[in-house]
Design brief:
This protein is mostly helical. The protein has a domain of about 80 residues. Helices cover about 50% and strands about 0% of the residues. It has five helices and no strands. The longest helix has 24 residues. The mean pLDDT is about 90.
Length: about 120
Amino acid sequence: MTRTPPPIKQPFKPTDDERRLVEQMCAVGIPQESICLVVRDGIDDKTLRKHFRRELDTAKIKANAKIGGTLFNKAVNGDTTAAIFWAKTQMGWKETNVSEHTGNVSMIERVIVDTPDTNS
């Protein structure tokens, strides 16, 4: 009786669509364990890190650059809210409140009335 050898397992080779999917999911903060579940019929976390290292390392940077660019463009084109946000987060500006008293300040008294405990 002749035995049929088991099929040779082909090495994993990511497709361009899989690379885009992993990059997008990583960019929006999907955990790697969850990303593994949706690539093909599920892949091992070691396979994900081995074959998608670049996407995992750069996805968040690219997303932040894109959002930052959009915010920057809004700010320089007159969007006051975007400009204020930029000034606070990128320029270290902050809002401060200053209180000034003009005129006479009168004394405010606080009276505490202590009544005996009638339940004892």
